Amino acid sequence: MSTVVDVLAAVLMIAGSALALIAAIGLFRMPDAYSRIHVATKPATLAVVFTVGAAVLRVPGLAPTTKLLLAVLLQFWTAPVASHMLGRAAHAAGLRPSEPWVVDDLQAADDEVDGEAAGGGVSAS
Length: 125
Description:
Elements (H helix, E strand, L loop, with lengths): L1 H28 L3 H26 L3 H31 L12 H13 L8
């Protein structure tokens, strides 16, 4: 049984390391900031899950396992929020993608807010 757990932990560690390498290479290969944000969060989060999963299989006891699972939970909680905020900040700064978007919902929402602030909203009469 211990051999099976060791092999599974090794496979998870190698898969997590490969995903982290893919994320690191992707940071240099992607053409714009939005693609880099994506590649910095999606594969990197999965890499953390795989490597921590391997560590959970190898550490003895409940306390270290709980800490490791808390690390995964915090990764899942903070990575999407951080990438979302980076994307909104890039959009607000006027940074455009390398290829034009088909639909820019954020720009449409900004235009609506600007129109209402300029008096273009619905009148109260």
